[in-house]
Design a protein that fits this description.
elongated, 147 residues, single chain, mainly alpha
Length: 147
């Protein structure tokens, strides 16, 4: 399952959120304020995702979760989070959850976080530690995994 790309997992979770919302909505909540909050989360997620991807490309390293990094990126969005792209996907899913307006889709956000940790982040951290050694250990000490 690790061969599923993070964007594909995000889309799968989004479709799961919509399905469970329509079939089993728990505690239906909706308002204009929540609509705005949902749009803000999605927009912020998109800004972070495209910004972090641009940083990787400008640094000449891979965005592919299965690829080997040629450079350790620690500035820009990566100064605040070791995984801003994964965090951006969580923000987008949270925005969709707020827009849907029921509690039941929350389970898919939690599943996304758990699967992302297990399928992508832990493996990437091992590869980065092996490749960048002391530089990566120093980065681990000063920058959180998510936010």
């Amino acid at each position: 399952m690790r061969k599923i790309s993070p964007p594909a997992l995000t889309l799968a979770c989004l479709f799961g959120m919509m399905t469970v919302h329509w079939l089993f909505p728990i505690l239906w909540i909706s308002s204009w304020g929540l609509l705005i909050v949902g749009i803000v989360f999605i927009t912020l997620g998109l800004v972070i995702a495209f910004g972090a991807e641009k940083q990787f490309r400008q640094s000449g390293t891979t965005v592919d979760h299965l690829g080997s990094a040629s450079r350790l990126v620690t500035d820009g969005w990566f100064k605040y989070s070791r995984n801003p792209m994964y965090f951006s996907f969580v923000l987008m899913l949270m925005g969709a959850w707020v827009l849907l307006g029921s509690l039941s889709p929350l389970a898919f956000i939690l599943a996304f976080i758990l699967l992302t940790e297990q399928w992508y982040i832990l493996l990437e951290e091992k590869r980065l530690a092996a490749t960048f050694r002391n530089n990566y250990r120093s980065y681990l000490k000063r920058t959180r995994r998510w936010i």
